[in-house]
Structures are given as C-alpha cells and as structure tokens.
C-alpha cells in the first residue's frame, strides 16, 4: 500500500523483522542484541515503558528537527498512517484523531513513536507505532574559510568537529592557527532561551587548529544544528552590533578598542557607548568571559584604551537590544546560503 523506493526496501524488511521480535515482550532483548535493527527503526507498544540500553557513551541518536520529513505507521490502522509528514517550523506535527499538536522536534524516532502511541490509547488497545525519518532537512551546518571545499552539510547523525572538517577536505595551506565555531541560537522547542550574557559567552568558541587535527577531546566537540565552522587565515577580531560597518579585522598588528570601532565606521547615535562588550576567550580554554567597557570615557581620555587580543569580539549594543547572535552571524558568515549542500549519512 505504501510505495517505497529501492533504497528503502531494506528498512522496510528490518521493520517487519523488528515487529516479529517485539511480540511476546522480547523488545528489550531485540534492542540489546541486534545492531542491525536498533539504529534503523523504533517500535513501541503503549503503555509499556520505553526500553533503553544503558551506556556511558554520549547520546548520538539523531533528534528530529523542523523541516524533517517523517513516515508514520500505525500497525493495522492504515487509515491513521501517514507518509511524508513534514515537521513544522515550531517543531510540531499533527496526527488524525489526536486533538492537540505533537512535539516532534528534539525527539528520537522512538520517543516520538511513544508519544503518538500514547495519543491513541483512548481509541485503541495497545496501539503500535513506527516512526522513521524519510528526509533529513533540519540538521544543517557549514564549514567556511581556509578549507579546501567550503560547503553546507545536512547531518543524518551526530558528528564531531574533526570528522566534519574531513568532509570539507581539511584545512587549506592558507589556514591559520585557529578554528572557530559559531553556535546558532538554541531552538525554543528544545531548551529555554538564553540571556544576552549567556548567549555571547557561548555563541563563539575558538580552538587551536593543531589540537583539533590531533583529535584532542578538548578541541573536538560534537557539532550542533546550525553551527558555522570558520577557519581564518590569520588571527582576527570581530566588531559587531550597532556600528556602521560590522567587520572582521585581521590582527596583523596591535589594535585597540577605539581604533577597531573606528575601522568599523564608528558607532551609531542610539548606541550604548558606556556598555560596549568585549567577549574574550580565556587562554588555553574554550570558555569566554565578558568585559564591559565605557567607550565614551576612553574617547574623552578619562580611561585607558583596551588592547585587543586574537578572537576578541567587540559588541556595541543598541538601546533596543539587537540580537548579539544575529549581528555576529551576519559578520562572520554573510554568504553561506550560496554554498552547495552535501549530505553526511
């Protein structure tokens, strides 16, 4: 009844095998014993508890996001089954007979199957639900700068920085000593929004490129949805926020705060000049700290100018509170949308 492309035949056979294994309460054994079935599909029978295999490894299961397309099967209920269900921008989907929207974003296939199954409990006894991802569209990242192949990537699994860099064919000969990750704002469907201070402290992280290339755990993090990885050719500083020309400045010679702001065309009239932020990475760490500087006092010679360090981010705030992340992203990666998209299976 449901048409499948040739490359999905294997998945369909595996799901049928899984259904037979699940009968008689052997679901936990099947999950623990079969490395073939478990990664492909998750089947649940409500109201039984979800079975999980204990592990000390990080959770590398793919989590559904906005734009992903799902196939959803209700066993013996073809009138309720759905093909090509697209997850909306707010992370939700709808299913027949269930009055409320169902949150799909941030859930694994198994978790969403369990959620849908609970929604049908009042209509059917032990509803069995299969969920699998038909198309991956939500987990997009980008690698730009001094790499051999700049590109966007759609992730179908979790991946670490070094492996992602290999898909971009590695650093080019022009690459400097630093690799940066610009984190996109967190999805509101997954976690609470951050304050401006928390956002600026975690939005931009730098690592020594040599440490990443050696695979050191401290410099080889998991990549998250929306991350932009940049490899500058030399040490840089970033001037963002309410200036006339937000820009990236190569740090070829010592530069002070006031000079960097001047190179960005100066601040606009509605800027908070007494609360200019310098977001600085602590030496030998991926942690960043924030300093508030009174630029007006510096200009009036009432305070010393601040010497800038590699990877400093200068954020000139506006009275209306423009998003730090939006300004940073537009400065660091203005043309990502023109890059080709490749899939990492």
Protein model, in words:
This protein is α+β, with helices and mostly antiparallel strands and 345 residues long. It folds into 2 domains: 6-135, wza like fold, CATH 3.30.1950; 140-334, Outer membrane lipoprotein wza fold like (Roll). Helices cover 21% and strands 24% of the residues. The protein has 9 helices and 17 strands. The protein has helices at 9-22, 27-33, 109-119, 161-167, 196-202, 209-213, 257-263, 295-299, 324-332; strands at 42-45, 69-74, 82-86, 92-93, 102-103, 128-135, 140-145, 151-155, 178-182, 204-208, 228-231, 236-241, 247-250, 276-281, 288-293, 313-316, 341-344. It has a 6-stranded mixed beta sheet with strand order 10-9-11-7-8-17, sandwiched between helices. Strand 14 (276-281) and strand 15 (288-293) form a beta hairpin.
**Number of E-type strands:** 17
- Which assembly state applies to the chains in this document? single chain
The number of distinct structural domains comes to 2
Per the CATH scheme, the topology name of the largest domain is Outer membrane lipoprotein wza fold like
How are the strands of the largest sheet arranged?
A: 10-9-11-7-8-17
Please compute the radius of gyration using only Cα atoms. 24 Å
Provide the helix percentage.
10-25%
CATH architecture call of the largest domain = Roll
Low-confidence stretches: 1-56, 192-200
Largest sheet: 6 strands, mixed
What is the CATH class name of the largest domain?
Alpha Beta
Order of helices and strands: HHEEEEEHEEEHEHEHEEEHEEHEHE
CATH superfamily of the largest domain: Outer membrane lipoprotein wza domain like
Give the count of helical stretches: 9
Residues in β-strands, percent? 15-25%
Based on helices, strands and strand pairing, what is the structural class?
alpha+beta
Shape: elongated
N-end to C-end Cα span: 28 Å
């Amino acid at each position: 009844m449901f048409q499948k492309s040739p490359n999905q035949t294997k998945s369909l056979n595996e799901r049928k095998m899984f259904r037979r294994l699940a009968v008689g309460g052997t679901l936990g054994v099947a999950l623990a014993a079969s490395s073939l079935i478990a990664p492909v599909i998750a089947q649940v029978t409500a109201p039984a508890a979800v079975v999980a295999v204990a592990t000390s490894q990080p959770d590398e299961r793919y989590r559904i996001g906005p734009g992903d397309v799902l196939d959803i099967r209700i066993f013996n209920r073809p009138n309720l089954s759905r093909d090509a269900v697209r997850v909306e921008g707010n992370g939700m989907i709808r299913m027949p007979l269930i009055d409320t929207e169902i949150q799909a974003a941030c859930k694994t296939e198994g978790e969403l199957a369990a959620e849908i199954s609970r929604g049908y409990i009042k209509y059917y006894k032990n509803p069995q639900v299969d969920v699998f991802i038909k198309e991956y569209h939500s987990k997009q990242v980008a690698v730009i700068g001094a790499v051999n192949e700049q590109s966007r990537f759609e992730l179908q699994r979790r991946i670490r920085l070094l492996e992602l860099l290999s898909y971009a064919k590695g650093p080019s000969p022009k690459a400097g000593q630093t690799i940066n990750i610009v984190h996109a704002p967190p999805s509101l469907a997954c976690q609470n929004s951050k304050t401006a201070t928390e956002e600026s402290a975690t939005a931009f992280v730098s690592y020594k490129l040599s440490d990443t290339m050696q695979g050191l755990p401290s410099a080889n993090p998991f990549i998250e949805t929306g991350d932009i990885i940049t490899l500058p050719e030399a040490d840089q500083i970033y001037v963002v926020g309410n200036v006339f020309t937000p820009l990236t400045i190569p740090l070829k010679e010592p530069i002070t705060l006031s000079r960097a702001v001047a190179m960005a065309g100066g601040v606009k009239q509605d800027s908070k000049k007494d609360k200019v932020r310098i977001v600085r990475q602590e030496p030998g760490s991926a942690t960043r700290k924030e300093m508030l500087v009174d630029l007006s006092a510096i200009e009036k010679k009432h305070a010393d100018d601040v010497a800038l360090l590699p990877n400093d981010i200068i954020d000139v705030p506006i009275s209306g509170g423009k998003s730090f992340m939006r300004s940073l992203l537009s400065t660091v990666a203005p043309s990502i949308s023109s890059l080709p998209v490749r899939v990492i299976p």
